[in-house]
């Protein structure tokens, strides 16, 4: 690895750290339940509301509230499930 390559990779690392910090800035002031739901969605690509309740051990009502707060901040995207149109699938959009 020459100097140019090492300089570029160090710059890329700093840029990646800034992206991560910006990514979570919208979540920083939200309630703990919303932070937990966002973190679980970060680890899992797509989950339903009931799956989020199982993963977080939060009551379904709390998960609904957390998802609504995350949607207000445009942190979470939702779409209908093709397998079951009664369910919505949630993904992290940041």
Question: Describe it for me?
Answer:
The chain is an alpha+beta fold. It has a single domain, classed as Winged helix-like DNA-binding domain superfamily/Winged helix DNA-binding domain (Arc Repressor Mutant, subunit A), CATH 1.10.10.10. Helix content is 60%, strand content 14%. It is built from 4 helices and 3 strands. The chain has helices at 3-25, 32-43, 49-56, 60-72; strands at 46-48, 76-80, 88-92. A 3-stranded antiparallel β-sheet has the order 1-3-2. Strand 2 and strand 3 (88-92) form a beta hairpin. Helix 3 (49-56) packs across helix 4. The longest helix has 23 residues, at 3-25. 18% of the residues are buried. The model has no long low-confidence stretch (mean pLDDT 84).
């Amino acid at each position: 690895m020459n100097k140019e390559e090492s300089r570029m990779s160090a710059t890329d690392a700093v840029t990646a750290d800034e992206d991560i910090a910006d990514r979570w800035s919208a979540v920083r002031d939200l309630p703990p339940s919303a932070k937990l739901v966002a973190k679980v969605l970060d680890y899992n690509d797509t989950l339903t509301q009931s799956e989020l309740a199982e993963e977080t051990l939060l009551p379904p009502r709390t998960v609904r509230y957390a998802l609504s707060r995350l949607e207000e901040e445009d942190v979470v995207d939702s779409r209908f499930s093709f397998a079951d149109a009664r369910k919505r699938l949630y993904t992290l959009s940041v």
